[in-house]
Specification:
Number of helices: 12
CATH superfamily of the largest domain: Alpha/Beta hydrolase fold, catalytic domain
Shape: globular
Distance between the termini: 86 Å
Strand order of the largest sheet: 1-2-4-3-5-6-7-8
Order of helices and strands: HHHEEEHEHEHEHHHEHEHH
CATH class of the largest domain: Alpha Beta
Length: 330
C-alpha cells in the first residue's frame, strides 16, 4: 500500500510540476510577445485590485495580454521641431527615433521608454532637456512604435537598441557629451548598453528601474495577490527561453556595477514597480559613480510630471556635472 501511495504522490507532483511549467510558459509568452489589437491591460496594483475577483483569476490563469505599443502623438504637439531617424541595432533589428535638436546644443540625450510604452511616452521629458540646451533622440525600442520586431526582452536586447542610438547621437552631436535617459525598462536598457554593449555614453539617468528581473517579476505576482514561489522563478526561467537568454542573468544592478560612467537613479517613494529599495541597490552597486534621489509621493511615472521641482533640480545638477567632466559647452 505504501509503495502505491508513493507512486500516486509522485504522479500528482509530476502533474503539478508540468502544469506549473505550462502556466509559466504561457504567462511569459504573454508578457514578452506583442499582440496586435489586444485590449489594454491593467497597469498598476490599484487597477488590478479594482477588478472583480473573476477577472483577476482569469488574468492569473491566462496571463496579461500585451498590446503592441503605438505612437499617438508627435513632438510638434509640444512645439518641438524634429526629424525621423531610422537605423538598426547590432542584431539587425530596424529602429525608429525622433531627433529633436536644440540650437547651440550642449550635448545630446538619448531617451528610452518603459515597458508597454513607445517614444511619445517621454515627449515632456525631452522638452525639458531641449529647454536646457540638450538635443534629444527619442527611440522606439524593438517591437514598439515605428521600430521592428514583435517582442520585448524587458531591457536585455533593448541594450543593443540603446547602444545603436548612442552612435546616432554621437554623429549628430559631434564633440559633445551624450547621456542616456531611461524610464523603467529603458533604464535597464541604458545600463546594459554601457556595461554590456560598450556604448560610449558620458552618463546614465535611470528612473524607476528594477534591480533584477526576478525581483520585478516577484512584485508582479504580489500585485496579482499570488504567491511568488514557485511562480516567479518559473516565469523568469521561461521568459529567458522566450528571449534567448538566461532570465536570471538580467540584473541591471550588475550592469550598474560595471558601467564606468556617472549614474543618477531616480525613484518614486510610492513606486511599486521600481521602488526606492531597488534604487538603493543600484546606487550601491555603482559606488562613487552613483547618486540616488527619491522623489516623495511619486508613483511609477516620470517624476517630471509629479515632482517637477525636485526632479528638475536633480537632473539639471547631474547634467551640469557631466558637462564639467566632459566636453565643454559651445
Amino acid at each position: 500500500m505504501g509503495s502505491r501511495l508513493r507512486r500516486a504522490a509522485a504522479a500528482v507532483a509530476g502533474l503539478l510540476l508540468l502544469g506549473a511549467n505550462a502556466l509559466a510558459a504561457a504567462h511569459a509568452h504573454r508578457m514578452l510577445v506583442f499582440q496586435e489589437g489586444a485590449p489594454p491591460a491593467p497597469a498598476s496594483a490599484a487597477e488590478v485590485a479594482a477588478l472583480p475577483a473573476g477577472a483577476r483569476l482569469r488574468l492569473l490563469a491566462t496571463g496579461v495580454p500585451l498590446p503592441r505599443p503605438a505612437l499617438t502623438r508627435g513632438p510638434d504637439e509640444l512645439g518641438l521641431g524634429f526629424v525621423t531617424v531610422r537605423f538598426a541595432a547590432r542584431d539587425g533589428t530596424p529602429l525608429e527615433a525622433w531627433w529633436v535638436p536644440s540650437p547651440g546644443a550642449r550635448g545630446a540625450v538619448v531617451l528610452l521608454h518603459g515597458y508597454r510604452g513607445a517614444r511619445d511616452q517621454l515627449l515632456e521629458v525631452a522638452a525639458h532637456f531641449v529647454g536646457r540646451g540638450w538635443s534629444c533622440l527619442l527611440v522606439d525600442a524593438r517591437g514598439s512604435g515605428g521600430s521592428g520586431g514583435q517582442r520585448t526582452s524587458l531591457g536585455w536586447h533593448e541594450a543593443q537598441d540603446a547602444a545603436a542610438a548612442v552612435a546616432i547621437a554621437r554623429e549628430r552631436a559631434p564633440g559633445r557629451p551624450v547621456v542616456l535617459y531611461g524610464f523603467s525598462m529603458g533604464g535597464a536598457a541604458a545600463l546594459g548598453a554601457v556595461a554590456r554593449e560598450g556604448a560610449p555614453a558620458d552618463g546614465v539617468i535611470a528612473e524607476g528601474t528594477f534591480s533584477t528581473l526576478l525581483r520585478t517579476v516577484e512584485r508582479r505576482f504580489s500585485m496579482m495577490g499570488a504567491p511568488t514561489w514557485p511562480g516567479a522563478p518559473l516565469l523568469v526561467a521561461w521568459g529567458g527561453l522566450w528571449i534567448g537568454t538566461n532570465g536570471f542573468s538580467h540584473r541591471p544592478v550588475a550592469d550598474a556595477g560595471r558601467a564606468g560612467v556617472p549614474m543618477l537613479f531616480l525613484h518614486g517613494e510610492d513606486d511599486f514597480s521600481g521602488p526606492p529599495e531597488d534604487g538603493a541597490a543600484l546606487a550601491a552597486a555603482a559606488g562613487a559613480r552613483g547618486t540616488l534621489v527619491v522623489l516623495p509621493r511619486t508613483p511609477h511615472h516620470p517624476g517630471l510630471h509629479v515632482r517637477p521641482v525636485e526632479w528638475s533640480t536633480a537632473v539639471d545638477r547631474f547634467l551640469g556635472g557631466v558637462l564639467l567632466a566632459g566636453a565643454p559647452p559651445p
